[in-house]
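Students often ask why we bother predicting the structure of a whole assembly rather than each chain alone. The short answer is interfaces. A chain on its own may look different once its partners are present, and contacts between molecules only exist in the joint model. In this exercise we take two input lines together and write out one structure for the complete complex. Read the inputs first and try to guess which parts will touch.
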Amino acid sequence: MSSNDPLKLIEQYLERVRVYLPLDSEDAIVELQTHLIEEAQRIGEGTMTAGSAMMAIERMGDPKSVANEYAGSGKKVGPVPAEYVNPLSRIIILLLGVGAAFTVGLSLIGATLTQLFGADIQNWPFSIPLMVFLNLFIIIVIIGGISFLDRDKPLTEKTTLESIFGIGVDGFKPKGRWDAAGDFIMGVILGVIIGIPSIVILYTDAFKALYIYVVIFLFLGAIRGALFYFGGENNFNLAVEALLSVVWIAMAVVLINVGWPIQSIYLTISPTPEIVPLEGFLTEHGIPFVPFDWIWAFIMFVTVVIAVWRVIVASMKITMYLRAGKRLWWQGNWGERRTLRTPLWRRILGEHDQFQKETVRHDGYMEPEESQ
Amino acid sequence: MSKKTEEELDRWSKEVKRGAVTLAILALLSKRRAYGYEAVKLLGEKMSFLALEQGTVYPLLRRLEQRELLKSEWDYEDPTKPKKYYAVTEEGHMALGAMVKDWSILSREMREVVLEVE
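Now the answer. The structure tokens for the assembled complex follow.
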């Protein structure tokens, strides 16, 4: 449903434009956002209303064309129209990346895809052209059908097709500044906790021999968080992220064979805490045995999938930035959208948003919801 | 005006505009820096013949920046409306000088030829 909030309308429209833009287009989005706000204010003679925002959006035009003009790609690739090249490439990269990440993760824990899905390909390789033809036919029918259903949607509302094309947009966004701060804080806290001597004595002998590497890795992760917090996304930080992810994949190969790392736990029933073996404690208290090695394998699997995904995205982005003429370090962006609202501290000081909502009635009469 | 003449005029004016728009943008931005929306409005006011829309101006600003004829700088003073200011680079000034020279010769010669027709 369309909103009555002019800022929301602009944001919704820009979300549609974003779907068709290449990955490194945050600047373009902000530039278009400023253009729309200023144009809406001009139309509203100094005040932005839902009506004036809608008129500014309509003047800017169809999101596909805007993105295509702005990105300036404008080239067809095979049967794919120019406007759809960016979102389709993003989906393909996403699928390949997720596929690669899961394959590496699964092979690490010793499972194969054939075990999972019981793959049984018959009439190989003659089944390939038939399957390609059938899938293309199904895709055309589905796209045609949903495009037909979306034909009356307003400019600010995402079509079903765009919602599908938008899949993965978040996966490629730069790391948020607060996420980076979180990486730093968690890296330091976990690194310190894992290295505390009274915690170390709880580990299995095999993990005791390795825990120091995990601590070093966590501190390196904290440094990576700090780098992203201050420098945003740039080639240096992406290279650090890719390198650390590769190191983690290598470490995970060893750690998965070490198995569940905690051998004992502290019992605090008596005034002085005593150390008891974990497995013995569970059996003694009739707690069904928990498959700790499987939990460990699952944790390793998830972290390796994330690490592989990070390597893929970082390598892709570094190539993209190098092609755009960027070097190793610059003040990069963070994943958070720049807010359209006046910041809270300014509002506390009495500065208000210079925008207002209004209700547009069917007879054309406009009723402001709040006065300036 | 016949349909054929209209089509010819349309085609011709598109070709003229294509060549003139880079010069117009560089000339306007050489006097003072401007952000996207400002540049669109400025070009709209001063160059009505070119009838430039934001769909033409923004990609062109971007291309000129990639070709290092323009440089840009973000201004976040108003966080609700961050502005990307464009200014002409050293290289851009040199290119503009050369373009202006050629344009002057072209317009003088064109004027002479067109006056003969009139």
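Check your guess against this: The beta strands of chain A are 264-267, 274-277, 358-360, 366-368.
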